[in-house]
Amino acid sequence: MTALMSLTNVSKNFGGLAVITDVSFDVPAGARMALIGPNGAGKTTIFNLISGVYQPSAGEIRLEGQEISAIPSRERIGLGIARSFQNIRLMPHLSVLENVMLGQQARAGNLGNMLSPLRRSRWRREAEELLEQMGLDTYPGEVVATLPYGIRKKIEVVRALVAKPKLLMLDEPAAGLNNTETANLKDFLMQIAATGVTLLVVEHDMSLVRSLCDHAVVLNFGEKIYDGPTAEVQKDPDVLEAYLGTRHAGKETTDVA
Amino acid sequence: MSGYWAGILTILAINIIFAYGIFLPVATGQLNLGGAGFQAIGAYGAAFLSASFGLPVPVTIGVGMAIAGITGFVIAFPLLRTRGVYLVLATFAFAEVVGGLILNSDTFGGAMGLSVPAFIDWHVPVTAAVVVTLFVFYLMSTRFGLTMRAAHDDEVVTDLMGVNVRSIQVAAFAIGGALAGLAGGLYAHSFNFVEIQSFNALVSIYVLLYVLLGGTQTAWGPLAGATFFTMLPEALRTVLPALKSGIYSLAGVEGAVPAPDDSWRFVILGALTIAMMVFRPEGLITRTMIERFGFHRSRAGKGAPA
Fold first, then answer.
1. Contact (CB, 8 A) for A67 and A55
2. Per the structure, how many domains does chain B have?
3. Which chain B positions have a beta carbon within 8 Å of A103's beta carbon?
4. Interface contact B217-A93, CB threshold 8 A
5. Where in this chain does the record put each ABC transporter domain (chain A) (predicted)?
6. Which residues on A lie below 8 Å from B143 (Cβ)?
7. Does some domain include residue B250?
8. Domain A3-90+164-249: homologous superfamily in CATH
9. Are A20 and A49 contacting, i.e. CB atoms less than 8 angstroms apart?
10. What's the rounded Cα separation, in Å, for the pair A255 and A250?
11. Which of residues 60-79 of A touch B (CB under 8 A)?
C-alpha cells in the first residue's frame, strides 16, 4: 500500500510550548486509521497541521508525495483533504442543504458557479441526493441550529464528504453520541470507507476504534508512542503506561480507556 | 399623487437602497458604520457633475456610484484587517474623513453645500429601489451569497471549505459602497441640494440600525427594517396627537390640546428599537421565520411527510 498522507519529523511549538515533537507516520491509501491518545496529546493539533489551520514548526507534510505545508489552507480541500471538527462547526444560520452545498465550494468555486443561483442547480441536486443516500433527507431546508446533536454530527461528515476528498479526517465523530447512535455512525463511516475514501479518525471510544479502524497511531504528550494494527494497540506497554500510569503497565489489562 | 406621498416614497426608496448597501458587508460579518461617507461620495459626485458640467442624470448618478464603489474597494483592504468594534470605529472614521474633506473643500461648496440643477421625480428612486432589491435577492440566492453568509457564521471553517473569505468580504464591501453611493446620487437629484451636514454620523447609525433590526440573515431584513423605520415616524405623526388628546380627555383636561412636541416621535422610535433588541435579537426577519413559511409550502406540495 502506498502512503496517501505522510508526516515526516513534524513538530509544532506555540512559543516555548512543544505541542507536537518529531512525529512521523504514514496514512496508507484506503486505510481506516485511528489517531488516539490521552487528552492534550496533540491529536487535534495534527488535524490542524494537516488541514493548514497551523503551520508546522519543523518537518514535512506530504499528500501523495507533494509537500503541502506552503499551500494555503483554503486550497487543501481541493487537493483532497476534508475534515470535521471536535465541536460541531456547521454554519448555524444556514440550512442543512446549504451547509452541504458549502462543502462543494472546492469543486464549484469558479466565477460562473459563484454567480448562478443555487436553486434548481446541479449542485443543489447533488447535495440533496447525497443527503438522501446518507439517510439525512428529512429536513434539508431546516436551519441546522435547531437540529439534534447526532444529526448535526452526521451532517458535518456529509459536508466534508461532498468535497469528494481522498482523505477524510474526523475529529471525535462519536463524542456525545449514545450506543445506538455510535453503532449507526460506525455503519455510516464503513459505508463511506467502502467508496474508497481514506479515513483518519480521532476518537476516544475504543470500541468504535476497534470495530472501525484497521490501523492506529497513538500520541502522548505530542510524541508518537505506537503505530500499528488496532488489534495490538491495547497490549502495547507504552500505550498502557500512557493511559494508566507506570504502576499498572506491567499487569495484564485488557480493557483500556 | 400628493407631494407628501411622493416625498415619503422617495425617502423610502433611497433608504432601502442605502440599507442594502450596508447589508452586504454586514451579511459577511463586517459591521459598516461608515454609510454616510459612501452616501456623501455618491451624492457629491452626482451633484458636482450635474452642477459643473451639466451631465445627464444617469451619468452623474452612475459616476457617483462608481466612485463610491471604487472607494469601498480600495479602503476595504486596510479596513477589513480590523475586526469587531475596531472595524466599526474604522468605518466610522472613514465617514468622518469624507465629511471633513468635503466641508473644507471650495470645489464642493464647503459648508454652503451644492445645488443640483437636474431634478428627478419620485418614480426614478422607486424604480432604482426595485431593481436593487431584485439584484440583492438574486445575489443572495447564488453561491456567492451562500459564501457571504457562511463567512458571517465562521470564517475559519469557511476558509477550510475552500472559500477565499477575504475576496468575498472585499467584494461585498465594495458593492455595498456602490449601492450606498447610488442612494446618495438619487438623494442629490431628488432634493436638488446637498450639504454635508445631512450626511452626518446619525445617518450612518440609523442605516445600520435598519439592517441590524430588520435582520441580517436574508435579503428581506433590510427591506423590512428600512420600511418599518422610515414609515414609523410618519405613522406616529398622526397617531401621537390623537393619543395625546385621548390622554387629556381621560384626565379631564378641558379645551383645545396643543400638538405634542415632534421629539416624542423619536422617543417612541428609541423605545421600539430597544424592544426589538429584546424580543427579536436576530432581527425582525430571520432565516428560521422564512424557513417556516417555505417549509409548510414545500411539505404541502409533496403531500406526504418524508
1. no
2. 1
3. 161
4. yes
5. 5-246
6. 101, 105, 108-109, 113-116, 118, 123
7. no
8. P-loop containing nucleotide triphosphate hydrolases (3.40.50.300)
9. yes
10. 14
11. 73-78
